[in-house]
Amino acid sequence: MNTELLVSAEQKKHARNVGFGYLGLAVITLAVFSRRPGDAGFKLTESGTSLTLPAQQFAWIFGIVFVALAAAQLLRGFGKLSSVVLSLATAVFVLSFLSWATAGESFSLVGMLQDTVSRSVPITLGALGGILCERSGVINIAIEGMLLAGAFTGAVGASLTNLWFGTIIAMLTGVFLAWILAVFSIKYRVDQVIVGFAINFFALGITSFLSFRVLVPNPDYNSLVPVMPISVPLLSKIPFIGQIFFVQTIFVYFSFAAVAFLTWAMYRTRWGLRTRAAGEYPKAAGTLGVDVIKLRYRNLMIAGAVAGIGGAWWPIGTVGRFDQNITGGRGFIALAAVIFGRWHPVGAFSGAMVFALAEAVRLKIGNFDTGIPSEFLLMAPYLVTLVVVAGFVGASRAPKAAGQPYDEQ
Amino acid sequence: MKLELRGITKRFPGVVANDDVNLSISTGEVLALVGENGAGKSTLMNVLYGLYKADEGEILIDDSVVRFTSPADAISAGIGMVHQHFMLVPVFTVAENVVLGIEPTKRFGALDIDKARQLVREVSDRYNLDLDPDAIVEDLPVGVRQRVEIVKVLMRDAKIVVFDEPTAVLTPSEIIEFFSIVRTLIASGKGVVFITHKLKEALTIADRINVLRRGKVAGAADPKTATEAQIAEMMVGRAVQLTVNKKPATPGDAVLNVQNLSVVDPDGRKVVDDISFVVHAGEIVGVAGVQGNGQTELVETLSGLRRLNSGQITLDGKDVTHSSPRDLHTSGMGHIPEDRQLQGLVTGMSITENLVLTRYHDGMFSDGVKMKWPKAKEIAKELVANYDIRTSDPEQLASTLSGGNQQKVIVARELSRDIRLVLAAQPTRGIDVGSIEYIHEQIVKERDSGTAVLIVSTELDEVMALSDRVLVMYRGKIVAELDPKKVSHMDVGLYMAGSRPTESAGAKS
Amino acid sequence: MKDLLKSLRYTLLALVASLLVGAIIIVITDVDALKSGDFGKAFSTVFNAYKSLFQGSFWGVRSISNTIAGTTPLLLSGLAVSIAFKGGLFNIGATGQMLAGGMTSLWVGFAFDGPGWLQVPLAVAAGAIGGAIFGGIAGLLKARTGAHEVITTIMLNSIASFLVLWLLKTTLFQREGRPDPISKPISEASRLPRLFGFLDGRVDLVAHAGFIVALLATLFYWWLLKRTTVGFELRATGLNSDAAKYAGMKTKSLMVIAMLFAGGFAGMAGATEVLGTYGYASTSLAGNIGFDAIAVALLGQSSPIGTLVSALLFGALQAGGRSMQANTDVPVDLIIVLRALIVMFVAAPLLVKAMFRVKSQVVSQGQTFRGWGG
User: Fold this and answer.
1) Of A353, A373, A390, which one is at a domain's C-terminal end?
2) Does C334 touch chain A (CB under 8 A)?
3) What is the pLDDT of residues B393-450, one digit of tens each?
4) Is A250 domain-assigned?
5) B26 pairs with which residues across the strands?
6) Of A406, B154, B215, B323, whose CB neighbour count within 10 A is largest?
7) What DSSP designation does C285 have?
């Protein structure tokens, strides 16, 4: 067989798409971001060290960088480096967007990124719950329901007892919903998407119902003092980075640990090997004596536990109470993060970061006067996600057996 | 060790797959279990392996009853199985596949992949299987995947090894190699159950032959005395024609002309490598080759389903190099695809709907907006009658049909159109003898009416019996063009394996 | 027909089962009763709640009118999810498509000054087109780049809601003298006629001709699936896209077509809400209907008749739920719980049968959504 580098017709098309994607970024940068003169001030630390970028000049530079990237991509491509180039390009684009939006003013970059990391918690944990299920062959649409129910019981549990107990109750709630998902989809072989959605509706209904019927007349069931951020010794002293990643609540550290642990477990342990086999080709595992049904049950319950803790983030990690539909669709965002991250914990984590950044930017950006209606700025993160997913990520490879009930016979 | 099945009966809704089957096998012998597709061989072995629960009957090991509720039980009792469809996770490495279920671990359940590699190397060296533990399974040729399956079984200390249709995907020389592996196994004190529908092979390797027909044991045969015809009759219940009846071909003008075709797959492998050939009207050209040597991609490219990288294809003189499947259909190409479940049929639709699947857009069935269902139903009734499709009602779902009848639906649909060329990929894979004979007959009839036929099959017997000319594909190239009447199976097999017979008597090129 | 009766019977049993579970939930969440041990009161709460649930959905013209009004957008957006499922796509974007369609119909509704017989169909058609274009984007992205529709439709929902927020603050759309994002009212001629208009003076009968639009759309959906060539292609693609490709169908174009139709249906849902229910547009125009639509499609197994029946059922529950909340202290959110339970029970015939000891063959169900695909 030939050893020269061969490219299939489909790959050529994808490479072209990516190239045009870079060209699109170049056009936006040059046509829009270069329109505003002034310096953009980014506060890099709480104390006030800041970075000042001349917005217009930067837009020109970045625009030219994108044109170069597009040309390189269209002419010869980046080969193995393409995903690295892509993430760098996205980061540069976000930076030029921010410098454009901030031109003439200054704002706390560190504060916004800190907020991003905090907001990524439920999305990350929800996505890990999704990965745990889907890697073992069960589609988990019910992440939203697990987060919401976890938020509710977490709030009540913590209000009545203490924060630890509340978190544990939230975790058990997730486990319970996951158990329902498991019984219906694995045992009764009901369509996994149907059960998942039914669980979402159930969680939405029951938490709203209970908050009216129980929490409103008994406000002390829904009132607690959330956890405080903890500064990690040494690490939190790293300039810029330390403030963003290491002055956070325990939920954030838990989610970091969960991502790292799951990545290790999925690719380096016996359990991971079996789980991935169950998601790709369950019969291969089943005929070797692995109990696929039991494995799926167990993994679903673990997924529920993780998502339940993700739900507890709302009352215990931030606002200190439960409100109706407090999750507001973050479970679906988590699902999007799973697909975005190609069913890999680290990929999903970066997806969660992107979506959380979108939220943080959204909350911040209303304050800027850019001459463009604020709604368009608010919309921008979603548009960028759309462009990134469409132009760059494209079709991703899901675990093959996800969605299919397993027939032991 | 002695293993015995007594009075095994297994029913599925509507069928009795095994009916009071008795069977025994001891270590040190090869038992061949023969029967045509659908006779119940695989069901029986799945019962033995704990995958199915028998409705009646029992399993005995060394005269005491055992109960298998899962493959884990069968494995620990010393039974190993190499399935017809390999039970390998395509994205895993050889080592990962082999140790799945019995993983060596370090602390905290961490996989000891070095130990796994070493185990694979040990077993593979001991039995001379030559495996790279770090190769990704989906990159391996089929013959090597089978060796991975064998290592899986050996690693679990199986005493009795069941091979389900192991030779279906092998070249003749690989089959010989496989037989020597079987002999090594017997010599090291194991017992082998060899399930097959290829009688020649059963006669070659088996110590005893048991014949299964429609779920029942139809008899036993002694390989030293029995003939192929005798066993075939036992298997089917009537005298079987072992060859295809056909007159010499009278080739006409070139219909399909392929020049310098190359195709690269998404992983960057050149799967079809500079192929040129011609198929004339009124002749059957067969493409022989071991599965995975580019035949699938060749057929997909010819039928417009895959983009090509370079080359030219003409159909009846018209350039169709970049034509869509639809254009090719309307220019007179019939296509019997490789996998009827995945490509050939929409099993969730009715038989009628499937019978018009490739020509529903025709003026006869559609006015451009609306479907003319009464007309479609009428034609469907005709096709069901003309092509011997066994169903009570063509409005039933295609999934209710047996494999043979599903394949007849596809054959009926494709051959009944106005066509100049038929591409038939694996036209008889996994179906019963009656349906095979019928489909072969139809293909020869199509040739005699002046259609050009290209058959791609990994069943060498089928290619040799049907074709007027044989092309052999190896690693994406056509390595030989042969006359099936002048060349032996063994020689074709050598080409299929990439080597060359010393005296190439039958080779034209 | 026999199958239809059978599935109706299951739906009915599932309904009874979910009402039972709902009753248990009402009782065990009655904190006062739990504290005092007075369960008699709790049981009478259940009785009264279900009584007003039933009365609020079917008893009298007003209830029926409310049910019809609730059913209309659910049915149309349910069709939007159903047709996507039929084509093998998971449309979570009915919300965004409703918003898009609502805004285009709104514009026709206030910008032109034609007679009603022209204005109404024009505005509804504008809604369908607006929704179709918005839905088509997701289809196009999937067809051209493989971007997964679950991600793109969720993103498009957010984009739509910000677009609407912006539009409602432009001088073109915003009502004069209002600081908040509320649109100008549509012209009187553009209003969908009220169904019970013949009962003079009953302004509380809110059902409007949007229901007729929805029924016609359902009929169209049936015709499209069963009678047309495109419908045949859509079903084939949804069931087995490899076979569809083999058969020469343009599966990528079909993705776009499925999403165009889906968006069109959802757009009409937005249009009937604007033209029939509100008479103007606000940011809460689509509410949760886009998500409820998923439940409608799942319960109806994406079939035309199934979608109709489940939309009616959900519409009735919604109407009854409001009167339940008004008359008793049971919150309307119980309805969401009941919906979830019904979907679950209907999807698990084995479980319902075990509960009611029904003896019959298991109804086998196809899968709505075949994994994540590529």
Assistant:
1) A353
2) yes
3) 999 999 888 888 999 999 999 999 999 999 999 998 888 888 888 999 999 999 999 9
4) yes
5) B2
6) B215
7) S
Contact C335 A205 (CB under 8 A): yes
Residues A180 and A282 in one domain: yes
Residue A369 covered by a domain: no
Q: Exposed/middle/buried for B248, CB within 10 Å: 0-12, 13-18, 19+? A: exposed
Contact of B466 with B455, CB cutoff 8 Å: yes
Q: Are residues A66 and A174 in the same domain?
A: no
Q: What is the ipTM of this complex?
A: 0.83
Question: Residues A156, A288: one domain?
Answer: yes
Determine, for residues B360 and C229 on separate chains, whether the beta-carbon distance falls below 8 Å: yes
Q: Tokens 């180039």 label which residue?
A: A85
Looking at the structure of chain A, the number of domains it has is 2
pLDDT tens figures, C2-38: 666 776 777 788 888 889 999 998 888 877 777 777 7
- B493: contact with A, CB 8 A cutoff: no
3-state secondary structure C39-50: HHHHHHHHHHHH
How much is the mean pLDDT over chain A? Answer: 84
Helices (H), A281-373: 282-286, 292-312, 330-340, 345-365
Q: Helix A374-387 and helix A345-365: axis angle, to 10°?
A: 170
> A127 and A41 share a domain?
no
Let me know whether A162 and A266 are in one domain.
yes
Give B193-258 as a DSSP string: EEEES-HHHHHHH-SEEEEEETTEEEEEE-TTT--HHHHHHHHHSS----S---PPP---SEEEEE
| Domain span at A323 | 121-353
What is the four-CA torsion angle of A62, A64, A69, A70, rounded to 10 degrees? 120
Place of tokens 């395509």: B90
Tokens 């092309």: give the residue. Answer: B471
Percentage of the residues of chain A whose pLDDT score is greater than 90 = 33
- Our CA-based measurement puts residue B189 at a distance from the nearest CA of chain A, in whole angstroms, of 22
Distance from CA of B123 to the nearest CA of A (A): 18
Domain-ending residue, one of A353, A380, A400: A353
Q: Same domain, yes or no, for A131 and A222? A: yes
Does A135 share its domain with A81?
no
* Start-to-end Cα distance in chain B: 53
Cβ contact (<8 Å) for C29 and A210? Answer: yes
Query: Do C208 and C272 touch, CB atoms closer than 8 A?
Result: yes
Q: Which of A197, A212, A385 sits opposite C294 (nearest CB)?
A: A197
* Residue A260 and residue A347 share a domain: yes
Digit-by-digit pLDDT tens for chain C (374 residues) are 566 677 677 778 888 888 999 999 888 887 777 777 777 777 888 888 888 888 888 888 888 989 999 999 999 999 999 999 999 898 989 999 999 999 999 999 988 888 888 889 999 999 999 999 999 999 999 898 888 787 789 889 989 999 999 999 888 888 888 888 889 889 888 888 888 877 766 777 888 999 999 999 999 999 999 999 999 999 999 999 999 999 999 999 999 999 999 999 999 999 999 999 998 999 888 888 988 898 899 888 889 999 999 999 999 999 999 888 888 888 888 888 988 888 888 777 666 666 665 544 433 344 555 555 53
Domains defined for chain B, CATH in brackets = 2-236 (3.40.50.300), 254-339+419-496 (3.40.50.300)
Domain ranges of chain C: 75-299
What's the rounded Cα separation, in Å, for the pair A138 and A181? Answer: 9
pTM of the model: 0.83
Q: Is residue A315 part of a domain?
A: yes
DSSP-derived 3-state class of residue C90: coil
CA torsion sign for B367, B373, B376, B378 is negative
CA distance linking residue A98 with residue C209, whole number of Å: 48
Do the domain assignments include residue A289? yes
Tell me how close the Cα of C243 comes to any Cα of chain B, in angstroms.
Answer: 4
Q: Is the dihedral of CA C127, C128, C131, C136 positive or negative?
A: negative
